[in-house]
């Protein structure tokens, strides 16, 4: 039962934040800044603690040695990631089993050392735009900047330049269709994300 599901970590003597019915710990993860919330839980519960995605148990690991064992030594046992509807099924870090192997084989040649060296100049230009934007902000008397927006623009510029051979300059043109469409994909409303995580997939 769902009630028994919420005793999963307690039965295994693993601490963690208390879940709420139906949602587990999803509301907290959706409503608060996740890195800060996880840091708070880390300080309170230690390097290993249990959460619930709806009624599904999730284990959070913050021990470097154990993370290495999971991601390297025992990768065959932990190779899959949670299933989510939508574009997640097309993302390398989300797809599963043989499909992951197939897509990885396609993507890997893109990231050879030679290809990465060719990307360096493009990334360097994006970095110059980033630094110029920061410099302009300082020159205009700004004491604080919204770093999340700036880093998001930098990331978008790098992706557009390296993957699509497109110069967009997200700092000067935040309403560029490339930027706005990507933002719409990644910034789904909280209610939509909650439904995706709590409703079953058919």
From TrEMBL:
Keywords per UniProt: Heme, Iron, Metal-binding, Monooxygenase, Oxidoreductase
Keyword set includes Oxidoreductase: yes
GO terms assigned for molecular function: heme binding; iron ion binding; oxidoreductase activity, acting on paired donors, with incorporation or reduction of molecular oxygen; steroid hydroxylase activity
Pfam families: p450
SUPFAM superfamilies, per the entry: Cytochrome P450
Cofactors that this protein relies on: heme
UniProt family annotation: Belongs to the cytochrome P450 family.
Record-given protein name: Cytochrome P450
């Amino acid at each position: 039962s769902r009630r028994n599901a919420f005793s999963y970590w307690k039965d295994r003597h693993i601490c963690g934040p208390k879940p709420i019915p139906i949602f587990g710990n999803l509301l907290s993860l959706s409503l608060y800044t996740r890195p800060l919330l996880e840091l708070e839980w880390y300080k309170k519960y230690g390097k290993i603690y249990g959460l619930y995605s709806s009624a599904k148990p999730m284990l959070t690991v913050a021990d470097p040695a154990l993370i290495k064992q999971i991601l390297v030594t025992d990768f065959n046992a932990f190779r899959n990631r949670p299933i989510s509807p939508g574009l997640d099924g097309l993302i390398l870090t989300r797809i599963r089993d043989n499909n992951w192997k197939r897509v990885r084989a396609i993507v890997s040649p893109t990231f050879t050392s030679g290809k990465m060296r060719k990307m360096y100049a493009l990334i360097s230009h994006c970095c110059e735009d980033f630094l110029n934007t920061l410099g302009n902000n300082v020159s205009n008397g700004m004491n604080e900047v919204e770093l999340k927006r700036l880093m998001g623009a930098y990331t978008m510029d790098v992706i557009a330049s390296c993957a699509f051979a497109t110069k967009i300059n997200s700092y000067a043109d935040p309403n560029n269709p490339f930027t706005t469409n990507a933002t719409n994909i990644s910034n789904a409303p909280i209610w939509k994300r909650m439904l995706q995580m709590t409703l079953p997939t058919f």
